[in-house]
Design goal:
This protein is an alpha/beta fold. The chain has a single domain, classed as Nitrilase/N-carbamoyl-D-aminoacid amidohydrolase. It is built from eleven helices and 15 strands. The strands form three sheets. Strands 1, 2, 3, 4, 5, 6 and 15 form a seven-stranded mixed β-sheet that branches. A six-stranded mixed β-sheet has the order 7-8-9-10-13-14, covered by helices on one side. It has a two-stranded antiparallel ribbon with strand order 11-12. The protein is globular, with a radius of gyration of 20 Å. The termini are far apart. Bound molecules: 4-methylsulfanyl-2-ureido-butyric acid (CDT). 4-methylsulfanyl-2-ureido-butyric acid (CDT) binds next to helix 7. One of its GO terms (molecular function) is hydrolase activity, acting on carbon-nitrogen (but not peptide) bonds, in linear amides. This is CN hydrolase domain-containing protein. Keywords: Hydrolase. It comes from Exophiala bonariae.
Length: 361
């Protein structure tokens, strides 16, 4: 069968959900957040969802806006003693429920490693098929500052203080059982042969919040044939010290409109340019009466079009049936990397971090 025939004939359909969370306040017990998440899993199950995606640092308030130390800070972290996230006491009910429903799940949380007490902003991928966590991602791009802002009333974003940059890179992985009739090693075929491309178990990758603004992160996954990218976020709607402001974004309303626009711009363009679907999920609403976070959770198709977008800033499921076979067109034509990329000109991207302007005239 030619690959064009494959594109039109085959389907790799799966029903997926973004589980947006509304505000979680400083004094909201972790167990309340988890209870709300369990309800979303139940509702998703009733609608035949096979994969559910939660936001970044899902069950807690967005604590990097607060200057914390000692026990007050540690309280937000899941202390991972043996490396098996499914046994973390605060999160176990979520994994148990996903296991009961055989549902796959992306879950973001603050990780404290058991061995050396390192803090990461982490997400894990739980496979309902295998009943295990099959992939872990640690946020690479940490926004904000190490020191709090000096301006009184400024909203901090102290991720550089509280987390180490992720050390796992961008590792794509296959999710078993997410779609039917896939090729695997037992089929006696090899990966990376023309006739098997896009026919194995779905290829997924994870990002966390600020990572979604960096095309380098998406392209690292694109080069591994990713078909579905998952990303949870907490994006402040009004934080002039962090984002800067000018006449266009000088009010809370216009700044929020721009934050929503930049969210959508990042996820739609990069889904298109890597020919993958993406599920992008907010924690949103106004936390503690004064810290607004944008909503705008979206499922985006592999042509960069929004399939469904959240309508509220509360707990809300967005659900779509996606057909991963549709990724083949972009991967085989406009973004056939092996035919069109010119890596001999891309060295600057990895050799240089900051900007170096050309010499002055
Ligand atoms: N959580 C997180 O990474 N938030 C950042 C804040 C805005 S920086 C422009 C984000 O990228 O959404």
């Amino acid at each position: 069968m030619s690959s064009a025939a494959h594109t039109s004939a085959s389907t790799r359909k799966v029903i997926v959900a973004g589980a947006q969370l509304g505000a979680i306040h400083v004094d909201t017990p972790r167990s309340d957040g988890v209870k709300r998440m369990l309800k979303l899993i139940d509702d998703a199950h009733k609608q035949h969802v096979k994969l559910i995606v939660f936001p970044e640092l899902a069950p807690v308030t967005f604590f990097p806006r607060h200057l914390l130390e000692g026990e007050d800070l540690e309280a937000y972290f899941e202390q991972e003693h043996d490396g098996d996230a499914t046994q973390l006491p605060n999160l176990k009910p979520l994994f148990d429920k996903a296991k009961e429903y055989k549902m796959d799940m992306y879950l973001g949380y603050a990780e404290c490693t058991g061995s050396d007490h390192v803090h990461y902003n982490t997400s894990v991928y739980f496979s309902g098929d295998s009943g295990q966590v099959i992939s872990k991602y640690r946020k690479v791009h940490l926004p904000g500052t190490f020191e709090p802002y000096e301006r009184e009333g400024a909203t901090n974003q102290l991720e550089k203080r509280y987390f180490k940059p992720g050390d796992l890179g961008f590792q794509a992985f296959r999710a078993p059982g997410l779609v039917n009739d896939t090729l695997n090693k037992k089929s006696g075929v090899e990966a990376n042969k023309l006739e098997t491309l896009g026919k194995g178990d779905p290829i997924l990758g994870m990002l966390i919040c600020n990572d979604r603004r960096w095309p380098e992160a998406w392209r690292s996954y694109g080069l591994q044939g990713i078909e579905l990218l998952l990303c949870g976020y907490n994006t402040t709607a009004w934080a002039p010290d962090l984002i800067g402001n000018d006449e266009k974004t000088s009010t809370p309303e216009t700044a929020k409109a721009e934050a929503l626009f930049h969210n959508k711009l990042s996820i739609t363009y990069n889904s298109y340019a890597n020919a993958c679907f993406s599920i992008n999920v907010a924690k949103c609403g106004v936390e503690d009466g004064k810290y607004p976070l944008i909503g705008g959770s979206c499922i985006v198709d592999c042509d960069g079009e929004v399939m469904i977008e959240a309508q509220t800033e509360e707990d809300e499921l967005i659900i779509a049936e996606i057909d991963l076979a549709k990724c083949r067109r972009g991967k085989e034509k406009v973004f056939a990397f092996e035919k069109h990329r010119r890596v001999e000109h891309y060295g600057i991207i990895v050799e240089q971090t900051g900007v170096k302007e050309p010499d002055l005239l």
